[in-house]
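Hypothesis: this fold can be encoded by more than one sequence.
Test: take the structure tokens below, design a sequence, compare later.
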């Protein structure tokens, strides 16, 4: 196993490009580099510069690479399909220009699922027709990515219609491997009641990219019991620096060794930008943890 590590703008609370509470992209890139990371993700389209020369300069002056982009859209709404495919094209063009490899594909957090995050037994599911429409959109996304040489990786995410194990399994059955790979997020797995190591073993041939995220067990338990919506849970610090939560990274490390995973892992700690938390310090803590508890133990 060999891991290369990055961080992402979401660790600074960047979920939406136009949020007035966002720190500037210059601050975020400065702090990602200053926290010891060599690469980042694109974040929501329009947050970082989209012009090829401007983005290349923003990254190169900080010795950062670009490893992935994110497609965070309403995959379950067929009326959004044309706009989604166009956004995929725009994002893939940017990724290709910067030599990035992956597009992380996530259904957008939406009601009622945002209030049902982590509630696997009672959460609303899509009906068969709605599910089929979402799969059609995802196949379209995969086809566009193939045109640009970008690997699309589906990300099961709390508060969305692809969150729980039954939904992940169904998506993996319905989507051809050549059109959709998998990004396993350790924190979102635990949020949804999944064992990330078991998911990694089951889908080892489709796992192309990783997100390392940790989760506060106490906040998680309270959030699920109270039906706390996903974004409120973020504001309550449900996610924490790696090694301070309940994700079993010893088991994750051993699983990655067993499946011989070699590639990129992006450290993430979703946060509320209005909370003014010290994201750089948390990013440094997470990097130190992964280097000591995961990478060093392999070496």
């Amino acid at each position: 196993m060999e891991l290369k590590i990055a961080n992402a703008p979401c660790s600074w609370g960047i979920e939406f490009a136009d949020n007035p509470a966002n720190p500037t992209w210059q601050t975020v890139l400065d702090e990602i580099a200053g926290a010891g990371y060599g690469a980042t993700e694109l974040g929501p389209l329009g947050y970082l510069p989209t012009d090829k020369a401007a983005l290349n300069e923003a990254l190169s002056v900080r010795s950062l690479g670009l490893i992935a982009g994110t497609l965070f859209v309403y995959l379950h709404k067929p009326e959004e399909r044309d706009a989604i495919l166009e956004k995929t094209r725009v994002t893939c063009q940017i990724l290709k220009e910067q030599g990035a490899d992956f597009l992380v594909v996530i259904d957008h957090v939406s009601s009622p699922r945002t209030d049902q995050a982590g509630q696997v037994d009672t959460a609303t599911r899509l009906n068969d027709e709605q599910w089929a429409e979402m799969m059609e959109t995802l196949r379209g996304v995969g086809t566009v990515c193939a045109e640009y040489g970008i690997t699309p990786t589906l990300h099961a995410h709390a508060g969305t219609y692809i969150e729980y194990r039954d939904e992940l399994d169904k998506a993996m059955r319905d989507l051809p491997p050549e059109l959709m790979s998998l990004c396993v997020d350790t924190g979102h797995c635990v949020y949804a009641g999944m064992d990330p190591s078991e998911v990694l073993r089951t889908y080892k041939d489709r796992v192309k990219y990783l997100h390392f995220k940790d989760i506060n067990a106490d906040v998680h338990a309270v959030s699920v019991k109270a039906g706390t919506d996903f974004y409120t849970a973020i504001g309550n610090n449900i996610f924490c620096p790696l090694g301070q939560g309940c994700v079993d990274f010893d088991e994750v490390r051993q699983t990655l060794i067993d499946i011989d995973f070699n590639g990129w892992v992006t450290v993430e700690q979703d946060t509320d930008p209005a909370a003014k938390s010290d994201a750089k310090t948390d990013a440094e803590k997470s990097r130190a943890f992964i280097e000591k508890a995961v990478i060093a133990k392999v070496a």
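The beta strands are 2-7, 39-41, 65-73, 102-107, 151-154, 181-185, 207-212, 214-215, 239-240, 262-267. Residues 128-148 form the longest helix (21 residues).
Hypothesis status: open.
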